[in-house]
Amino acid sequence: MSPSKTVRFSAVFCLSLLFLSYGIRGSAEDAKTKEAPAVLKKPVTVISDTMDADRKQRVVVFRGNVYAKEDFDLCGDVLTVYYDEADETKEIVAAGNVRIVQGDKRARGEKAVYDREKKAVVITGKPSAMQCADVVDGEKITFHLDSDRMIVEGRTGERVKATINPKKECSEGPEREEFKCGAAR
Asked: What pLDDT score does 175 carry?
């Protein structure tokens, strides 16, 4: 492949990535049949040290202090985006020191798998989630990004551990370091 085709291909995949995220409403089929009105897709900004796009494998890999921003922030060491035959995002996998921030909700773990269709993120690898002063730990934490729903499963032989603070005030003060996105880790 010539350098200009490689750049063009990378640009196409980058642009495809810009249209992923849970904020996307309606499918390509809806737009074709006009059964449901198409909603403008929101761009996603991804910053990383490197990007490797493989059209044949339908995958784009971002490596090195990866920071993705849309309606939520997603940070980690590696971010892999998988596409289907129609070049639609199927799945996004973040690995290594993963942090997710959406408003006053924060989560961290070693791996996060984002299911675009379900609009859910599953966090594993010693996951912890926090909202204001409330903290919960388990084996697997599932966030449903378009609702206030979270499912936490306990570690093998252990139960879910939650610390619920009676005061539900959220301060606008400095974030806890372990959940920061966008900064070198």
From this structure: 56
Q: By the 8 A CB rule, do 108 and 98 touch?
A: yes
- CATH code assigned at 53: 2.60.450.10
- Model pLDDT for residues 11-41, shown as the tens digit of each residue: 334 433 333 333 333 334 444 443 433 434 5
Q: What is the pLDDT of residues 81-113, one digit of tens each?
A: 998 888 888 889 999 999 998 888 889 999 999
- In which domain, by residue range, is 163 found? 3-170
pLDDT digits (tens, 9 = 90+) for 52-89: 999 999 999 999 999 988 778 899 999 999 988 888 88
Total domains in the chain come to 1
Q: Do the domain assignments include residue 178?
A: no
